[in-house]
């Protein structure tokens, strides 16, 4: 007999309530054991004299969550989660940090921190370290971050199991453990890889059973949509190649329960008539007034919504709110959003409608209401037929330009599991341009299989130019690049982590669960390739740059080697692998270095190079906003003089007002007459703070600054 979701949920809730009553009794010694184990593994200071705990269960495991805190107002605490086998699952230590009083550069190196992290793993898990692999992905290091982060994934016979692993963070200043998290499935069986198909066979299976497809994608720049051609996987990341059969398998989640309420709640705006009180309008404001006069009125769009039969907006529904606003990213025109409600003692219903303010074209609607818990009356075929009949009525022209492509769920993940008939269906119709899918455009629509009504409709359709892809690279060429530069790898993975309507409670228990051996696409890089060149693209459609540690090949033996390497470990520097330390530095590159260290809670997104004019403009906007650069001083590609570098660094320290009082400073450099009189205070302050030392008794203010000396200035800044 099929297990009903309501019954299953009720049983789960009942068990969750009953287990603590019997298993977590006062006589249980688990808490004492958990406390003793935790204190053996970690130092719990006596100052943390407030102790609290919680307890929960997951299958056969009992998990104790222990918390020690202090009475001070700084929130100092230590939290530890430990199960009844003595396995530490989580550790979190919070100590108040006065960031103004600590050194900004790390006191310990990343190598030292990694050694500390591995000592902790071995102490807490004596028998599993050999089954861990450190992920070497470089992080966007920020000077404002106080920790090093390490992620280790589980392996079995040198084959990775990415769903398990241990992550840690180590303080850059003290070397202390800040956070520890362990995710480890117990009693998991790993099949031998001895009979797995070869990598070449897996690649052939990938081509035949998963594959890549030529598509249109888009990015946005300056509020404009840029469409480009790309090859990308047809199937999502839940799909793999079975390592033994070469077949396609789906190990993702399968959901057949009622979908969450998809109603889009948007802020309502009140509209009223303006009053002529003699206030003059700017040309831009006048244009806006003229523009809004061309839009459909609120009454007109309400009439359009009420006339759409599928919404059933009779007079029992009242208009709760209406808003007119500029569309997404300013790319779309203005849109109306209307919210209707109906409420009485028995029912509560809400309908949201969005439409183009100029044309009245409906681009979205959602209906939500309380419904009885009844069985589904319609199957997927009936639902699809009703949906397509509706689309032919509301959007006949655009619907003809779409294609429905169903990606079926693999039956093997539902072995021995019986499910109820689904109560909701969702269908997607992708926009096709020249027989090529535009993945981000199309129609999404949902159907209630109990009531036989369409509950959600969403249209995304850009009015943009599409480049010709007639000369796109052949699939054979793209596959060669894909397997060479991205590739497949053997992995262990588990089947679905959540199955709704499981026939047997506990089916997802770790006990005797077997991992699956699959060939998976390496996920370290983006899975999008340029349609013409096959180059890997990032999410903006730009060539992907692999993150690598910041290292230089041309600084060995240089007088600034120590400072440069110390900064590089903290993620501060310019793109390598050659620095060319004796080369003059440009204004934009020095300012990029400054952006990496300014103490404003953010850096310039970890950038070590400016890859576009837009990024350069963003850099200057940031530093103008911070008061470090003035608009009139912008000269990105000009060589930077020594006195100009001091000007910018003093402003970064927020000492500009003091430095501007040049008459109060005594400059002892012999060439002080060559210094810009407005920068005398800046130079004297910089020398007094040991940011610059000059060339003997001379400052040489007009000399062009070398890259090496620029990095020494940055290093000295961080010692203040």
Walkthrough of the structure:
The chain has 720 residues and is α+β, with helices and mostly antiparallel strands. The chain has helices at 5-23, 30-41, 110-124, 199-209, 283-292, 298-306, 380-394, 396-400, 475-485, 561-569, 587-595, 613-625, 642-652, 656-659, 680-688, 707-717, and strands at 50-58, 61-69, 77-83, 88-94, 132-134, 147-156, 159-171, 177-183, 212-221, 224-233, 239-242, 248-250, 318-326, 334-343, 348-356, 362-369, 402-404, 424-433, 436-448, 453-460, 488-493, 516-521, 529-530. The strands form 4 sheets. The protein has an 8-stranded antiparallel β-sheet with strand order 1-2-3-4-8-7-6-5. α11 (587-595) packs parallel to α13 (642-652). The longest helix has 19 residues, at 5-23. The chain is globular.
What's the helix and strand layout?
Blueprint: H1 5-23, H2 30-41, E1 50-58, E2 61-69, E3 77-83, E4 88-94, H3 110-124, E5 132-134, E6 147-156, E7 159-171, E8 177-183, H4 199-209, E9 212-221, E10 224-233, E11 239-242, E12 248-250, H5 283-292, H6 298-306, E13 318-326, E14 334-343, E15 348-356, E16 362-369, H7 380-394, H8 396-400, E17 402-404, E18 424-433, E19 436-448, E20 453-460, H9 475-485, E21 488-493, E22 516-521, E23 529-530, H10 561-569, H11 587-595, H12 613-625, H13 642-652, H14 656-659, H15 680-688, H16 707-717
Antiparallel strand pairs: 1-2, 2-3, 3-4, 4-8, 5-6, 6-7, 7-8, 9-10, 10-23, 11-12, 11-22, 13-14, 14-15, 15-16, 16-20, 17-18, 18-19, 19-20, 21-22
Helix pairs in contact: 10-16, 11-12, 11-13, 13-15
